[in-house]
Design a protein that fits this description.
The chain is α/β, with parallel strands linked by helices. The protein has a single domain, classed as Rossmann fold. 33% of the residues lie in helices and 20% in strands. It has 8 helices and 10 strands. It has a 6-stranded parallel sheet with strand order 2-7-1-8-9-10, sandwiched between helices. Helix 7 packs parallel to helix 8. The radius of gyration is 17 Å and the shape is globular. It starts with 13 loop residues before the first strand and ends in a 22-residue tail after the last strand.
Length: 239
């Protein structure tokens, strides 16, 4: 990989919110890489996927593929519903799934209680993975990004490298800054094997994102079976 990572800024142990420039940009892949890297440095880890949609109905209840990947890469064992307390079967916007299938709405209090329960396990690193992009509606009045701002959680931004990513990334960065939240770092995630001028795109993103690039993850086959920790800049963990 050609890129030289920024090494003068280190992550500190704590809670981070992983968001993306859009849906399907690889938030779970990047969260897995971060968890694996922390685990290799003997840091205790937990992950939280408070809201998911597109779940499979199993004998154990609704299960989300992304949440299962997160669970499998946590060093602290917890029940599935601690990691993913709010789950819906149809692959649609979660707040619409809540209204259409359960005639209810997602409550911030449920999300907050789930976070507190995990934090009480005292992990060195707790990664919260959002759903969709930054401004995910949780009901017709509230956004998940508003909850993140209230909790004052630093953000890790995943940029899916594809045509249009520059606009999506810059808009997302501006919105995060307007929420008075720090961007702890960002990850360039390759969504295709042959994006034209990809390194020029990464250079442009570096110019507009005032945060360290902590990983550049190539397009990979069978990503589920891969050790992704090698793509994370080791300086992202500060002892």
């Amino acid at each position: 990989m050609k890129h030289q990572y920024t090494t003068n800024t280190q992550f500190k142990a704590g809670t981070y919110f992983v968001t993306g420039t859009d849906t399907d940009v690889g938030k779970t892949v990047c969260s897995k890489a971060l968890l694996q890297a922390a685990n290799k440095q003997n840091r205790s880890t937990l992950a939280y996927k408070p809201i998911s949609a597109g779940c499979e109905n199993t004998v154990d209840g609704l299960r989300n593929e992304d949440a299962l990947i997160l669970k499998d890469n946590c060093s602290i064992p917890v029940p599935y519903n601690w990691i993913n307390p709010i789950a819906y079967e149809p692959p649609i916007a979660p707040h619409i799934a809540a209204l259409e299938n359960e005639d209810s709405q997602i409550e911030q209090t449920v999300i907050s209680k789930g976070l507190t329960r995990l934090q009480q396990k005292s992990p060195d690193f707790l990664l919260i993975e959002g759903a969709g992009g930054w401004h995910l509606p949780i009901n017709n009045e509230q956004l998940l990004s508003g909850w993140v701002a209230e909790q004052k959680i630093p953000v890790v931004l995943v940029v899916g490298l594809k045509l249009g990513c520059l606009n999506h990334a810059i808009l997302t960065v501006e919105s995060i800054k307007q929420s008075d939240l720090p961007i702890a770092g960002w990850i360039a995630n390759h969504l295709q094997t042959d994006m034209p001028y990809v390194q020029q795109n990464i250079a442009t993103l570096e110019a507009y994102i005032n945060a360290p690039l902590i990983a550049e993850i190539p397009f990979l086959d069978n990503v589920e079976d891969q050790d992704l920790s090698k793509y994370i800049c080791v300086d992202f963990i500060a002892r």
